[in-house]
Amino acid sequence: MGDDGQIITAEQLRQAGLIWDYHRMKYEPRPVDLAIALGTNDLRVADHAAELYHAGLFPTLLFTGGNSPSTAARFPRGEAVHFRERALQLGVPDTAILLETEASNTGENIAFSRRALTAAGLAPRTVLLVTKPYMERRAYATARKQWPEVEAVPTSEPVGFEEYLTNFGEEKLVIDMIVGDLQRLIIYPERGFAVEQHVPEDVRAAYKSLVEAGFAGHLSKP
To answer: Residue 3 has what pLDDT?
Structure first.
């Protein structure tokens, strides 16, 4: 059962898992000039970014994000601020951290991060985009459109769909967001926000079925 009382069937979980697998690009993290951790409703993004920093993959970590409707209550001081505090708790030195505190969506995460890095005198050629597992593909597609001169590599914590649901809770919210991210991958290239990505027919069918079943809480309005 979902967090709002909606019954979630085994078939709907299978469909959501299919979309989850599509969103995950599964690149191996590698040494880069710097990392950008995109603000979300999941603090484990900061955990993963800190882990990659301690692995020596980059010298500088930028947290980006203000607030959005799905994060304002969870992170009242802003996503980037809370993520920075978490990274400090995990031993990332403050001297290695930059903040961008205004972005409210993925496009702004990329655009405002570029602006912040320019202001700091940094011009990276390679960047890790640290985000939630089901935001990997959208982060990548957005960066390819808005920052084509940089090689952007998406990464997220190595966790499966069922384990993520268990750890995060709020199953209905997670499926809504998985569905919403796929919708954005489909429609945003026409709006100039992201490069086009091939979406397999079985993934499109799963998306249509879940929207019809009411998993539409994170869909973008026309």
So the answer is: 52
> What is the structure's pLDDT at 6?
73
Mark out the alpha helices in the chain (DSSP H runs). Answer: 10-23, 44-54, 79-89, 106-119, 136-146, 161-168, 171-191, 201-212
Name every residue whose Cβ is closer than 8 Å to that of residue 218 and which is 6 or more positions away in sequence. 70, 176, 177, 179, 180, 181
DSSP state of 46: H
Token pair of 23 as six digits: 């969103």
* pLDDT < 70 stretches in the chain: 1-5
E-strand stretches of 25-79:
34-38, 61-64
15-52: burial string, b at 16+ Cβ within 10 Å, e else = bbbbbbebbbbeeebeebbbbbbbbbbbebbbbbbbbb
Of 21, 50, 28, 25, nearest in space to 37 by CA: 50
Quote the pTM value: 0.93
